[in-house]
Amino acid sequence: MTRGGALPAVLAVDSGGSGLRAVLAVRGEPFGAPLASKEPVRTGPRGIDAGHLLEQLLPMARRLMAAAGVDGLGAVAVGAAGLATLGAELRAELPSALKRELGVRRLALAADAVTAYAGALGHQPGAVIAAGTGMIAIGTDLTSWRRADGWGHLLGDCGGGAWIGRAGLEAALRAFDGRRGGSTALLERAEGMFGPVSDLPGKLYPRTDRPAVLASFAPEVAACAGRDPVAADILRAAARHMAESAAAVCPADGEAQVAVTGGLFKMGDALLAPLGEELAEQLPHARRVPAAGDPVDGALRIAVDLANDELALPRDQRMLYVVTEKTD
Amino acid sequence: MTRGGALPAVLAVDSGGSGLRAVLAVRGEPFGAPLASKEPVRTGPRGIDAGHLLEQLLPMARRLMAAAGVDGLGAVAVGAAGLATLGAELRAELPSALKRELGVRRLALAADAVTAYAGALGHQPGAVIAAGTGMIAIGTDLTSWRRADGWGHLLGDCGGGAWIGRAGLEAALRAFDGRRGGSTALLERAEGMFGPVSDLPGKLYPRTDRPAVLASFAPEVAACAGRDPVAADILRAAARHMAESAAAVCPADGEAQVAVTGGLFKMGDALLAPLGEELAEQLPHARRVPAAGDPVDGALRIAVDLANDELALPRDQRMLYVVTEKTD
């Protein structure tokens, strides 16, 4: 499979808001520590900047290959945030560039939701809720992909970190104003975190990372949920929204599984308990399972399966774009 | 009252997101057409830029005074968006500058919510809901001001134009995804207005006028409300939020009146009918009255009352800041 024919190594890459991570696997097992850049790949007028991604990726790949003593890659899988809508340049330029620079003949470009799915459920049919600052649900019957939400903090991402934090801050300001639906517990938390709330608009609106600022308040909502009914209602509504998205993408029949993945679920039972109830109500046929791994594990799984001609997940230009070239 | 002693003229100014408007009144009646600039007054690191406001205002004031044949002003009232939080430089510089340049000895600096109130209810106690892209409620018992919401499109402005439009677009995208709570009628409207909704995030998020883009969809929600229950529910929720804000600021006893003002109410009964019901439920003691006038009328009312020593509205540094100097 590899040019040297010695070791069936693959490379898995995750490109997201916090930078690029790359992992090499030999015989299906990660080899050594992953490498990470701290700089997110730029998005330009033509979408995700292929040149900027390669600038970061190629030196990492060469270092990982040298450390493992491999001289070829059976496959590369790149998971990238924004691929579905901003991936045209990656699709156009990565296959030839990776072939030229690293001899890669099998390449998968996957939306970050797809690597999240593959990491959580492998190639089982079902639905995965991926939630951090944002929120998206992705599902497949192994014939095609479906996605729901993931529209960003103004149009959706309902139930994600920014959504929960925003709702919590609104409840804090309702208490400040004396409006219905306010929470003095959340007002105290907001003042503790941001200072006097009358200054909050001036602190939030000029920032370019507004969704992250909003999401930073989500753990405070979770911390209040045990004793504050307003905070508990926010998390219940978040859980309902997430389950609605999962229900929209989950196969209706068969052996559907459902899993959750992403940093938002670190808040634990305050969110997971109502989410379990909402999933049981809205997706009674789907079996709830723990996520097997994270998006890097998912990219690795895709790369290994692609190298072994065993990729069972549906191919699709926007979600999982695969370029293969027959080896001699 | 005026330096010439001939005509008790006053000047009213409204500074907002679409620029500056100035009206001269003689004997309490507007004289000639108002003058308007198209450029909003800049906000700098020290808040609303007093120099930029004066650059626009002084030539307008001189033109209006020359046209009316007056050589002095009994009072000036300036209503300014953002005064409460961004008005420090205006409070520091406008009194001396207007005295030096125009001989002004009585000046009122009012938050735009206060001119909206004065325009709608004059000096009656009560509450006013002012809604356009944003939403704020302001109320007074004639002793002090109370305000509720007006926190901007991410933290509140619940029920305003951006809030309604955002909720409508979320419902459109729910229909697109096949999620619960979707509206195919709103999806059609969204596609008619913005094109394929899959491109909507790329069109919305890079803009700097995101609240205005969201608010531009509010009339489409109103247009669907007669036959689409999701759209009707959005307007009902908007009405409930607005009434909640009004209830938080309206005096609980006495002869409280409640009025609505602002461009959002051009959408008519689709919003006004549920708002009437919510006000009746949440503020049963307040008498609903039509707004007597708009914020420019309110600034004019404040200027005339100030010139005549009859200003009955409560003074307050952030809401209605008044500087008077005894005339000889």
UniProtKB/TrEMBL annotation, chains A, B:
PANTHER family to which the protein is assigned, alphabetical: N-ACETYL-D-GLUCOSAMINE KINASE (PTHR43190:SF3)
Cleaved signal peptide residues: none
ATPase BadF/BadG/BcrA/BcrD type domain ranges (all copies): 13-283
Organism listed in the record: Streptomyces albiflavescens
Lineage: superkingdom: Bacteria
Entry protein name: ATPase BadF/BadG/BcrA/BcrD type domain-containing protein
